[in-house]
Amino acid sequence: MSDENSHDAPDQAPDSSSTAVAETVSDVETVNDLDDEPEFDEGAGTKAQIKKEQRRILFRSPGFIIGVVVLLFWLLASLVPELLTQWGPKEFVTDGEGNPLVRSKPSGDAWFGTDKVGRDVYARVIYGTRPVLITAPVAALLAVVAGTLLGLTIGYYRGWVDEIISRIIEGILSIPSILMAIIVIFTFGSTRPVIIGTVAVLFTPTVTRTIRAATLAESQLDYVTAAKMRGERGLFVITREIFPNVVGVVVVELTVRLGYAVFTIATLAFLGLVGSNLTDADWGVDVSENYELIVRDIWWPTMFPALAIASLVIAVNLLADSIQKATSS
Amino acid sequence: MAKFILKRLGLSLVTLLILLVIITLIPNIAPGDPARKIAGGTASPERLASVTESLGLDDSVLTQLGNLIRDVFTLDFGEAFTKPGESVIGLVGDALWNSTQLVGFALIVVLPISIGGGILAAYKKDSWVDRTIVNGGLALSSVPEFVSGVVLLAFLAVPIGFFKVSADAPEGASVLTQVNHMILPVLSVLTVYFGYIARITRAGTIGALESDYTRTAFMKGLSTPKVFRKHVLRNALQPTVAVIGTQLGYLFGGMVGLEFVFNYPGLGRLVLDSVRGADYPVLRGGVVTVALIYMAATLGSDLLIAWMNPRSRANVGADA
Question: ipTM higher than 0.90?
């Protein structure tokens, strides 16, 4: 059913989902304020302390700091690339006397060298940030929203719906997601909405599985039983009781999926499946366009976009890892 | 145990069936005429008709599904579009054999190093060795394999002639030469899996090391190697076995980027080429093969775990 999203309303999907997240997040806060304090005065105090402590651990972990710095740099590059480079991504570089530089080694004129037609590799790396930083976060966010909703529902209600959805999840996961993405993009066409939708749909099963497991564990705790015995409706129990307690898992899942989304989308671009214009700067496309030059020892047009991909994925994973450690401490 | 195997097998079949339903549905829910998309915008009417026919898009979805199920159980996916006269199963078979060689070599290298690294990290928990293995592994495994492949090419294959640019050894090369050609791709696989497997092994080993039975074993005076062999590993490695089981499918079919960089004719490459050549029968055959491998591998690892830990036999299907 989520397949329909990917081609029916690709443009609206990102907007609606991000507002949905904003709403649920503000819900959580109000829940914490209104619900917990009158009922368990002490509990609320320690809870806030735990949160504070977790934040302190997080902000002090080197992984988190490195991750944030690298991520901020790429964010800056995607927002205002012209601030960071004097050359445009499609401009041909010339040296001091106006001679064109083609396949020239990294130098003062071109920090990362120039590619096979004489464009500045550094400028292309900077401008190439944007396609990844648009598609990957949207795809990850969609997957996490859909997976959280599904996981909470089937994890709480169980029954035959859970049984069926769990089987479907198994079915989708029985094929490497990159392979599944290739088939779907092949049949649906390689436009940006299709790529975002495909990655989102392919990541939803994993998110669903994680959230389902967390929900299952929470459902067996006393506070859920108590809520049920008070006669609360299922919807209330899920959104007001269980969800605030699995928010940590959701946040971790969001960062982890973001890393995988960058990974997958870069790979798809490298394999020539993102369908963007080949002259547009894009890390994955630039690697595949130039990698055959490596055997002639012209490594720079391939290496720098490749390292850019690596740095972004590693940064996101460092973030995910440090958040996970902080929330579980 | 027999009951467990039967139940587990049934579960695999259900999963396979669902996957086949998904594969059948994809071209049917795609907007526009998928046959035109697959054949390309400039395809002739005849080609379009043959594409439509081979996709079976004129039939009802149920008939299409029936045909696909029949194809899977008879292992006959028809003829390739792009190579007339060649059966899909023949092409898939060749690619599968190539992938098996690469995966086999990779496992021989990756498993001992990663499992050893994980056990070492657990044993030296919280030391710099542990931190290096865990954090270095995390950083390496988050890099896409085509990126590490490109880096290896530029810094090893080009300056040092010993390492080969292409993983595909020339026809009739000796086993040693073939192995030589596969060194770099295997290193690339190592970067992807080392951190992952080492981490899981570490967590399992720490759990086992902190357990009562291990303490008892140490207290009754057994030597460290003996405690590891008899008490720790059997329990510590269960999650590792499960992970390897689920990752085998990925190793066979998910290394598309790697096979592309090193020009290796494995299953991932076959699927990618079939997409580029719009060869739908080959695409379908390749994908189903990868799924079958995944199912066999997860089945195998579940059985192995059941053998290692009898308690796990009770909850088949409980953790979807």
Answer: no
